[in-house]
């Protein structure tokens, strides 16, 4: 790609009546390049086009879904974590997937299955003038 100053020169020379061949000769660029920049209206950079490609984990999703379906019938401490699923995929199936890929997919599948973690706390709210007190035992040392 050529610089914006060269593109500006191409357009100015053309407005002054110079031919495409003369512009190319004077600036040291090819005639097709001169024609290209004379045709273009929008000179902003175009973002690269990302092609969708299948993920490496797609072939293992039915197996993972089966494991997560079994997890619904077990205690919460016995359920599969993403790390455990990754280890099983590598050891038992010879899968060539990274831990981060497995973690991302497991998080998505757990949301679908409703197996996501429950919040471990409650939001405490009280109206103005009210207070909360916790009754318990503590040791205090005065000096």
From TrEMBL:
Where the record annotates domain HTH IS21-type, the positions are 5-68
Q: Which GO terms describe its biological process?
A: DNA recombination; transposition
Keyword annotations:
DNA recombination, DNA-binding, Transposition
The question of whether DNA-binding is a record keyword is answered with yes
Q: Which Gene Ontology molecular function entries are recorded, alphabetically? A: DNA binding
Q: Which family does it belong to?
A: Belongs to the transposase IS21/IS408/IS1162 family.
Q: What is this protein called?
A: Transposase
Q: Which organism is it from?
A: Bifidobacterium criceti
């Amino acid at each position: 790609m050529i610089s914006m100053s060269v593109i500006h020169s191409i357009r100015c020379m053309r407005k002054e009546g110079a031919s495409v061949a003369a512009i190319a000769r004077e600036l040291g660029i090819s005639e097709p390049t001169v024609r290209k920049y004379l045709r273009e209206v929008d000179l902003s950079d175009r973002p690269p086009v990302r092609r969708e490609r299948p993920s490496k984990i797609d072939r293992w999703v039915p197996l993972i879904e089966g494991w997560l379906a079994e997890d619904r019938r077990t205690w919460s401490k016995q359920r599969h974590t993403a790390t455990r699923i990754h280890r099983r995929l590598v050891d038992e199936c010879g899968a060539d997937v990274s831990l981060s890929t497995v973690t991302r997919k497991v998080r998505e599948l757990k949301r679908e299955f409703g197996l996501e973690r429950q919040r471990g706390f409650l939001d405490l709210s009280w109206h103005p003038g009210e207070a909360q007190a916790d009754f318990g035992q503590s040791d205090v040392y005065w000096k």
